[in-house]
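User: Teach me something about this protein's shape.
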Amino acid sequence: MHTQATARILLGLTGGVAAYKAAELCRLLLQSGANVRVVMTAAANQFITPVTMQALSGQPVAGDLWDRSIGNAMGHIELSRDRDLIVVAPASADFIAKLAHGLADDLLSTLCLARECPLLIAPAMNRQMWENAATQRNIAQLQQDGITILGPGIGDQACGEVGAGRMLEAEELASLVLATLQPKLLSGVHVLVTAGPTFEAIDPVRGITNRSSGRMGYAVAQAVLETGARVTLVSGPTALTPPPGAHVVRVVSAQEMLDAVNAHVDTAQIFVSVAAVSDYRVRHASARKIKKSDASLTLELEPTIDILKTVSTRPSPPFCVGFAAESHDLDKFAQEKRLHKKLPLLAANVAQDAIGAEDNELILFDDSGRHALPRGSKLEQARVLVRHMAQLYRARDH
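Assistant: First, the predicted structure itself:
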């Protein structure tokens, strides 16, 4: 299976109240397994101390352009050469202006100018500063230069005003930074993903559903987007926010999900069936609310159509990935499902441990055998799954 090397990130801090969020961003990046080196401007030191960032990163914090302890006394060269990317958070209006005009009068601006790796910036400033024509010109110039702009967010600001300009929250920034580092293994590929539960009506107010939160399917959609693919996400009822960039088709019932899949599958090279689709529906749903009484109620159920099998047994099916949630005999049932539905890859987990949970423990089954993934967040699991899926897809495609 494919393994990913440790991400090497240089985190730059400039002057701004949002510098406190950089501490949490550093912690989250380290938690993901990244190696984080911190560089601070003199203004940043007014808001958070280098001691704090050194304690969090586990590495000395740099800030002096003339530091002779750095190899060849060239910190602007040495500090970034082994990094996979640079992220500046917070990025002040002043620092953005420096970048836009190629100014280099301190360590952080100089190493950004001398870099060989991608640069991401997270703007943080008062809303008037953000909306100022000069700032907008500078941002447009940075985008034209290939620098990625993360945010800003909209909301309450330290000055007491409300509007655009606040730095994104650390959790969102960490996700965006790590997404940038994912290899673009599926660039140009259309991937169709189903997610969430379905709801089968009993009457206008009641129905049959399950405990699926949709988190795993949404995580898969996010992980696929990170690889450069185009994603269509067919989602059952959830309270989740879809990943930016996905084309979302919202459905309720298994039949609606099947119809949506059929409408998009012809252009998809890969189909990932993550949704927990109801196996049964009420044969004759009531058009009116069934009134409660002391008598017992019998519902006649009929099976729904198997969406994954319908796709995988097409004359020319896309590369199909299935999911199985089992309460017992996981390996046995997962392998049987994979073979029965003719799937090149199936991901399985224990239903009572995974459904509704925020983390997961997947086991992948393919023609070469069984691959157990260490327990982790659903996005972490989805990224490993998608890398493995991309390998198998490319091997089959070529």
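Now, about its shape. The chain has a mean pLDDT of 91. The longest strand covers residues 319-326. If you'd like, I can walk through any region in more detail.
User: That's plenty for now, thanks!
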